[in-house]
Specification:
Length: 165
């Protein structure tokens, strides 16, 4: 039984605001008495139930990088576990609103990265051109964000196995 409550998840989202490592994800669920492993995490990512991690470099010589997941994966995993416990299959979950969460997270991440890259590109333009580009960039970013939010809202209305409008 999924034992993370809404308040548990809110506290974890606050604690891991910058992202959460795979080992932290496994630890969170194991501490809550759940069976969960890195292999399960990888399987959920491969099935597109969870967004992919983002590689983040570690400061220091020869430290390499590590994968950081958006903190929303904690909520998604909890929802997946609940759906499995209620008898849903992974395929039904993948086609439900729960399954779309990973792809929506990828859209949000891609939009944020695109915004950063566009801001950087605009910064290399002459001042006169910059002003017009920045204004248009913000208009487009608001529009894209609104569309992603609409997709997110719609996906929330998809229950496991059917659309509940």
């Amino acid at each position: 039984m999924a034992s993370l409550t809404a308040s548990d998840i809110k506290a974890l989202e606050k604690r891991y605001r910058e992202g959460v490592s795979s080992s932290d994800i496994v630890e969170v669920f194991q501490r809550a008495g759940e069976r969960f492993s890195e292999a399960t995490l990888r399987k959920y990512v491969q099935l597109n139930l969870l967004p992919k991690s983002k590689r983040v470099g570690t400061r220091g010589k020869h430290k390499g990088s590590s994968g950081i997941y958006p903190v929303s994966v904690l909520r998604i995993i909890n929802d997946v576990k609940r759906a499995l416990e209620s008898g849903a299959t992974l395929e039904e979950i993948r086609l439900s609103g729960i399954g779309l969460c990973a792809e929506i997270e990828e859209l949000k991440r891609a939009a944020a990265e695109l915004g950063e890259r566009l801001n950087e590109a605009v910064g290399h333009q002459p001042d006169v051109v910059q002003e017009a580009l920045v204004s248009e960039l913000f208009r487009l970013k608001r529009s894209l964000t609104r569309q992603i939010e609409e997709i997110d809202e719609f996906s929330g209305r998809l229950s496991v196995g059917q659309v509940s409008l």
